[in-house]
Design brief:
alpha/beta
């Protein structure tokens, strides 16, 4: 039996489309799950080799369901990411007219991406969230709702018609998906990598977040995602999900993580992996004093000082 990849289903989701862009997907059994949580739990229990789930979109930022699942529970690691351009279609049962639509459904992350279109064209329609966009299409097929926002490709799969296509409030909207597996040695650095971590402050104090971010700033590490998530320990208690440029094998990144480990209550490492659609030649020059060679030279200088050889 081939190894399996779990993904946010059912069939016909944007997640499935993005997953099939990975070359290794052709050699895996692709198994749809009803939620992000169930897909990630399949990895934790060994039911699946890896899970493929959405984690961020360019309109609303981090997808909280996925972030919260990575923050809590048995640790998992991100190994790959994929960017997919997103545009929606309004799908309905054959014979439905736009004026017939009283209820619409889709994944909650879709709503901010079609909110203005919905207000302009279906101002009286009631919104109901679905587990995924394809699941919304399935519910329309079953008669639960009048229409669903989903990928146009889902229409044939669920016997629906496309009432409107190319729906989006923001041009060039993209969603980022990640391949998540059990913890292991990260892949070798490519020169165009990203490192993801979750940080818990040791205590709440003025400038606490600045102190955490300073570990990256002083080492010339650019951040690409910073999102706070409640810890569940009460109002005002948050952890911070961070994506940073670089690989854990880079001296500047490893040094920053060591600094964070010393100062934070807890640090959860989520992996170092290649950045999607970015080549090493696209990455800008490092800030002076942050290259591996300069870290090595500084360590050698300290050792010479300790030996009285400065």
């Amino acid at each position: 039996m081939p190894a399996s990849y779990a993904y946010l289903g059912p069939e016909g989701t944007f997640t499935e489309v993005a997953l099939r862009t990975l070359p290794e997907s052709a050699t895996r059994e692709l198994v749809p799950y009803v939620s992000v949580q169930s897909a990630l739990d399949a990895v934790r229990t060994g039911e699946a080799e890896a899970a493929f789930v959405p984690i961020e979109n360019s309109v609303e930022g981090g997808i909280t369901t996925t972030l919260d699942e990575l923050v809590a529970g048995q640790p998992l690691m991100i190994y790959r990411e994929v960017l997919l351009s997103i545009t929606f279609a309004l799908l309905a049962r054959p014979g439905t007219r736009l004026s017939d639509i009283k209820t619409v459904t889709a994944h909650p992350a879709a709503q901010p991406q079609v909110r203005n279109w919905l207000k302009a064209h279906l101002p009286e329609a009631a919104w109901e969230s679905a587990a995924s966009n394809a699941d919304g299409a399935r519910l329309v097929q079953e008669g639960r709702y009048d229409a669903a926002f989903a990928g146009e490709f889902a229409a044939a799969r669920y016997g629906l018609e496309v009432l409107e296509a190319d729906i989006h409030d923001a041009e060039n909207a993209q969603t980022r998906f990640v391949l998540v597996g059990r913890p292991a040695r990260p892949a070798a650095p490519t020169g165009a990598d990203k490192t993801s971590v979750v940080l818990w402050q040791r205590d709440d104090h003025p400038g606490g977040l600045r102190d955490l971010l300073g570990e990256f700033a002083t080492r010339g590490i650019n951040l690409m995602l910073l999102q706070s998530r409640p810890t569940g320990a009460g109002i005002g208690n948050y952890c911070f999900c961070i994506d940073a440029e670089g690989h854990i094998s880079d001296r500047r990144v490893a040094d920053a993580l060591m600094g964070l480990k010393r100062s934070c209550l807890q640090v959860r490492y989520l992996g170092s992996y290649p950045r999607a659609e970015v080549e090493p030649s696209d990455v800008g020059a490092l800030r002076p004093g942050t290259s591996d060679e300069e870290f090595t030279a500084a360590a050698d200088w300290v050792a010479r000082c300790q030996d009285g050889r400065f």
